[in-house]
Amino acid sequence: MIKIGIIGATGYAGGELVRILTGHKDAEIVWYGSRSYIDKKYAGVYQNMFQIVDAKCLDDNMAELAKQADVIFTATPQGFCASVMSEEILSQTKIVDLSADYRIKDVATYEKWYGIEHKSPQFIKEAVYGLCEVNREDIKEARLVANPGCYTTCSILTAYPLAKEGIIDMKTLIVDAKSGTSGAGRGAKVPNLYCEVNENIKAYGVASHRHTPEIEEQLGYASGEEVVINFTPHLVPMNRGILATEYASLKKDVTYEEVKAIYDKYYQKERFIRVLDEGVCPETKWVEGSNYVDINFKIDPRTNRIIMMGAIDNLVKGAAGQAVQNMNLMFGLPESEGLELVPMFP
Amino acid sequence: MIKIGIIGATGYAGGELVRILTGHKDAEIVWYGSRSYIDKKYAGVYQNMFQIVDAKCLDDNMAELAKQADVIFTATPQGFCASVMSEEILSQTKIVDLSADYRIKDVATYEKWYGIEHKSPQFIKEAVYGLCEVNREDIKEARLVANPGCYTTCSILTAYPLAKEGIIDMKTLIVDAKSGTSGAGRGAKVPNLYCEVNENIKAYGVASHRHTPEIEEQLGYASGEEVVINFTPHLVPMNRGILATEYASLKKDVTYEEVKAIYDKYYQKERFIRVLDEGVCPETKWVEGSNYVDINFKIDPRTNRIIMMGAIDNLVKGAAGQAVQNMNLMFGLPESEGLELVPMFP
Amino acid sequence: MIKIGIIGATGYAGGELVRILTGHKDAEIVWYGSRSYIDKKYAGVYQNMFQIVDAKCLDDNMAELAKQADVIFTATPQGFCASVMSEEILSQTKIVDLSADYRIKDVATYEKWYGIEHKSPQFIKEAVYGLCEVNREDIKEARLVANPGCYTTCSILTAYPLAKEGIIDMKTLIVDAKSGTSGAGRGAKVPNLYCEVNENIKAYGVASHRHTPEIEEQLGYASGEEVVINFTPHLVPMNRGILATEYASLKKDVTYEEVKAIYDKYYQKERFIRVLDEGVCPETKWVEGSNYVDINFKIDPRTNRIIMMGAIDNLVKGAAGQAVQNMNLMFGLPESEGLELVPMFP
Amino acid sequence: MIKIGIIGATGYAGGELVRILTGHKDAEIVWYGSRSYIDKKYAGVYQNMFQIVDAKCLDDNMAELAKQADVIFTATPQGFCASVMSEEILSQTKIVDLSADYRIKDVATYEKWYGIEHKSPQFIKEAVYGLCEVNREDIKEARLVANPGCYTTCSILTAYPLAKEGIIDMKTLIVDAKSGTSGAGRGAKVPNLYCEVNENIKAYGVASHRHTPEIEEQLGYASGEEVVINFTPHLVPMNRGILATEYASLKKDVTYEEVKAIYDKYYQKERFIRVLDEGVCPETKWVEGSNYVDINFKIDPRTNRIIMMGAIDNLVKGAAGQAVQNMNLMFGLPESEGLELVPMFP
Questions:
Q1: Residues D178 and D113 in one domain
Q2: Distance (Å) from the alpha carbon of A282 to chain D's nearest alpha carbon
Q3: Residue D110 belongs to a domain with what CATH number?
Q4: Taking CB atoms and an 8 Å limit, are B23 and A280 in contact across chains?
Q5: How far is CA B308 from CA A328, B160, B165, in A?
Q6: Could you tell me which residues come within 8 angstroms of residue D60 by beta carbon, excluding any fewer than 6 positions away?
Q7: pLDDT, tens digit, 9 for 90 and up, residues D272-305
Q8: Which residue out of B245, B286, B297 would a mutagenesis test of the C interface target, given it has the greatest number of C Cβ atoms within 10 Å?
Q9: How many C-beta atoms surround the C-beta of residue D121 within 10 A?
Q10: CB distance A230–D198 less than 8 Å?
């Protein structure tokens, strides 16, 4: 039984970790960390867990938790994990960090986009970017995994095979992404109120969203060239789900079958990536509650572009599900353990 | 491995049966019956099942299916199950009927409220009303189970202990219920279009909804007296969930603790009924995707009434989940097998 | 041109006042009071008013405002209006108070249900309860109008004719009400976040909601007897709209036509009350954005009860629209001026 | 008083025409045409119009209607208007066609994208494309106006000034658009059911949507070159609203101020186009119920692209509102008559 600590257990990603790990047969949560709800019953914060979780919330004492837990999930604001990280902690426990602290290899890029100083840059090199389908082998050996962002997971995986195979002109890549509101977290802010989000759609963070350099870095590794993209997130009136619509010019004439073969080469054996049948557009509802990434594409001969589309549940594959997938890899468990979640429709 | 046939597999309740049974370790679906989609891939109708279900849809040949399946779920319009039922079928397989055909013992009442002739009234007596928490022992022995309606499951279980113990004046019982739109089914009708339901709430079927006599009959058994109620359903802009708010006059002075003790007497050991802590109102979101019934109550000394509240997921405990719970009982399996579904929030 | 001041102009009710008054040909807003946004452009808070309203937000200095405005709307939290009211202010300007401060005649009842001390009880007697269809003549003469609550407007008007004519047993009256989320205001609170409200319904304030005594008082005046009711509000995932479903036993046998005649007696000439055709249930969407109250009823001979239903837009007839209707009466304008708002569908 | 006939009065665009024209002081609807609801009361189809519209629905006899009406709005499926058009009709009345029949000048392009034969191509040349802000003078003289599509109105106006001034490389233009569900019409189809749309987002018509050639043609006129674009519509869980996010490479270095000056050159005097303050992203909710187009842009120096954003209410500026705006121009009325609609929030 793997002993698990969660810091930030009462955020939406933290809550999803609890939901998933409750059904994981080799995991046991020993620490529900929540700075805001210390000593309160966890099920009082998330009433769905009534009679399922009996524990009370604890603080975020990582030093103490490192002694008790085999792995710690930090579902915390940017900067927290970096501020508490130490060799001592890493020598006692494994870490899956759901924040951005260790996702970006270049500390200057991190500090520029996030506007904060990185408190423990010495661990960045060691940290493995936890995109399981791309970095599986490295994750198995890792002490410290940087769990990818929600937008980034979807955006990268949707374009990855074509970037890797050099089919698309990376200079032309544009990612137009749409997210449900849980991605904004459980903080009490006016823009996230029901009445402000419902019956509304807007772009935000245009040409400045923090997930941009993360997508660029990873697709840069894939394509072997420097990648600079436009990434535009939008807020959609729904709880869960991210849809990425991506545009790129094709570097050569390709047929549907050729592109499909490339996707299949990378994803056919992947348990959690489904390349849909020709002509079927991904819909976020078809993956809701599950760890799946649904992907498809359309070639437009009129413009010589390819339109790629990917859909995930932002709280599962975009956060907690991928974190558990990483944990499974780190502990030598079957990768899908606890993640056999059938999408819920409607 | 229990071999399962589903007639009506492409309705919302049928789809939920597939979702749940896919995760049931002793069940194997051998027949996806759908009159509208014969020969089409099931996963083409419900794309969430892509790469999970590979089968094509079949017809509704019950005679043939009875030979292949250990149990048949009929998630079909009223009248279908009664029209095809026969001793031969029942001698070959078990039936869990999700329609209303065998729920009401008095055939005249059925025919009056449903406006159709009952084609096989000879099986009504044998049929067991599949409200597991009330009729558990009978269900274990049944060949034919009438799976309760969604509104009725919620409405009955919310008031059952107080009706049974004679605490409330049954003549004063009023059930004001609110349902998500999946309860209206997947038929293409203007009133169920997104734009008609969204940003809207309305009552419907006022003083005439077909679930009324079913609630009355079951609460009549519980209280030992004839029960005639007002039941008012409302359509709420959400996919899933039923909330029943029930009002009744108290027959004597009771304290919170006394009423709580009554609920606990009936429900404390029930795996799927959660009587919430004092002051916590049930919310449909807290049970979404799960087989739970969340219940609570408030005594109003000003009016000498008790307000009872119950919440379920209409497609799970109100349909497919309860059907699987019935199946588990009928086959001697652990009652919660395949139903260890943690509610999904948000 | 009537000069108008609004205190609380950046709440949802305040915003709706601005929307309505912008289209009122005899009104001119001279003061956009908002404690939270002083010196900020009003259109920066409500971007829908961009290029329509050019003013900046001001403070809540009632003494100064009383000198400038012909009428002040206070769309403020409970207690504010009472705390600043004075004979000096009332001698200079008229007041339409959208809070509860002057709605309840018995100060002890107010203080008990609202849990705060009433700072100016000397004005309660003078204040006119601004339910236009009931108190029209008194409103015309008033200096201080207590604008009714949203739930109460809907709940009272739905039952008023039957209470007044003594057709229903007031001791049996139960009001089960459902409201959109804008009724909860624009405060940044976790329970009002999109993800908490969406795909969810719950009761709240069961047997304890503050609108209860207001409904009881007014229906008491109508029926000529003390009225004690159960009132249960529910939060519905929609922005606007209140639906009240009300239950009462009939004191004598009545036909549909007799009850319809009673409703028509009171409402046929009312510009903003629509008694729907037989069998048509009110829907909140059919009144959205307008000042209408849609009402209908169903007699249930099985239980000898009548089910009454009423629907309003909580921000219009339940708040800002009724406030403007009151203003029109107070200033001798046509009652519907600025309120010729056609409901928006879908 | 302008006498108005509407064919297709019970679709969503037709309903919106009725809502708007009800408040238009120089207009009187004399014909509510609806093939599906002949002889039924209009207010029975759209209950929001109860006691506002008393008329019954009539058929679609254009010949007869042409004698009675000064202008006919055809809010009908593609092909209808073209199939009934004649010189006789045009000599008797004016036509504002809300379908696509006369929007595209090249009949072959129309027939290819719409897959139907054009029945009266002889009127295409005469027809004026009713994008008021672009073709105002021609509209004033027109007998036959082709009212632009919803997506196209938003997409064109968002990019128009930059296309016109040659600032952007038209070969790089990509339009990623998001629409509320009313754009899909009131037809009873499974994909438009509440449960299918709610909690979901998807692209559709990728590289094949019929509004593509309309955008290309108009932006071609503006830029003076052939334009071929990628246009990707998405279905968003909301009733109303279109947001277009558009990407294009800049042909030269420009500052925010320079681009703003270009937008202002074309739009500053436009009553219904609002170029927002720097940094404010358009949101569909801010224009809901109104005829506004909200526009803004962001220059991304990293990619040398400009991201343009535009928001409209698809039923108002995207259909009925623009149609009325066209009518006002055609009859010499103030352009904003009947269109002084303040956006409704929340």
A1: no
A2: 6
A3: 3.40.50.720
A4: no
A5: 44, 10, 15
A6: D7, D8, D33, D34, D35, D76, D80, D84
A7: 999 999 999 999 999 999 999 999 999 999 999 9
A8: B245
A9: 16
A10: no
Q: How far does A185 lie from chain C, in Å, by closest CA? A: 9
Q: Which residues of A touch C195 (CB under 8 A)?
A: 12, 181-182, 186, 192, 239
CB contact under 8 A, B47 and A340: no
Token representation of residue D92: 């008797």
β strands within B88-241, DSSP E? 94-97, 128-129, 144-146, 174-179, 202-203, 230-235
Residue C268 shares a structural domain with residue C186: yes
CA distance C19 to chain B (A): 20
Residue-wise pLDDT for C79-127, tens only, equals: 999 999 999 999 999 999 999 999 999 999 999 999 999 999 999 999 9
Q: Which two tokens stand for residue D118?
A: 């054009």
Active-site residue, A150 included? yes
Report whether the peptide linkage leading into residue D77 is cis, meaning its omega lies within 30 degrees of zero.
no
Q: Based on the domain organization, do A232 and A92 belong to the same domain?
A: no
Q: Would you name the residues of C annotated as active-site residues?
A: 150
Tell me whether strands C174-179 and C242-249 are parallel, antiparallel or unpaired: antiparallel
**Exposed, middle or buried by CB within 10 Å (0-12, 13-18, 19+), for A56?**
middle
Give me the mean pLDDT over the B86-111 stretch.
Answer: 97
The total number of structural domains in chain C stands at 2
Catalytic residue selected from B57, B81, B132, B150: B150
**Residue among B12, B186, B195 minimizing CB distance to D181:** B195
ω before A301 within 30° of 0 (cis)? no
Residue type present at position A316: V
Q: What is the pLDDT of residues D218-269, one digit of tens each?
A: 999 999 999 999 999 999 999 999 999 999 999 999 999 999 999 999 999 9
* Domain of residue D219, CATH code: 3.30.360.10
Structural domain including C49 reads 2-126
Which residue in chain D is spatially nearest to B185 when comparing CA positions?
A: D195
- Shared domain for D159 and D267, answered yes or no, is yes
In a domain, B248, yes or no: yes
Distances (CA, A) of C186 to A183, A262, D346: 21, 50, 10
Whether residue C155 sits in one domain with residue C296: yes
What the block records as the tokens of C95 is 């007041």
Chain D contact probe: residue of B12, B181, B194, B197 with most D CBs at under 10 A: B194
Say yes or no: C122 and C221 in one domain.
no
Task: ipTM value, please give it.
Answer: 0.97
Is B47 contained in some domain?
yes
From residue D247, alpha-carbon distances to A162, A228, D220, D260 in Å are 21, 15, 16, 16
Question: Would the CB atoms of B239 and D186 count as touching at under 8 Å?
Answer: no
B99 shares its domain with B160: no
- Cα–Cα separations (whole angstroms), residue D266 to A173, D159, D210: 31, 11, 27
- A161 and A100 in one domain? no
Note if the pTM is more than 0.90: yes
What is the per-residue burial (b if ≥16 Cβ within 10 Å, else e) of B169-183?
A: ebebbbbbbbbbbbb
Give domain status of residue B50, yes or no: yes
Distance from CA of D306 to the nearest CA of A (A): 9
A198–C181 C-beta distance less than 8 A: yes
pLDDT for A291 equals 98
> CB distance D195–A346 less than 8 Å?
yes
* A256/chain C closest Cα distance in angstroms: 39
Q: A194 and C189 in contact by Cβ < 8 A? A: no
Euclidean distance between CA atoms B328 and B96, whole angstroms: 11
| Residue B190 within any structural domain of the chain | yes
Chain D: list its partners (3+ Cβ pairs within 8 Å). A, B, C
**Alpha carbon distance C148, C133 (integer Å):** 12
Chain A partners within 8 Å of D180 (Cβ): 199
CB D228 within 8 A of CB D145: no
- Which percentage of chain C shows pLDDT scores above 70? 100
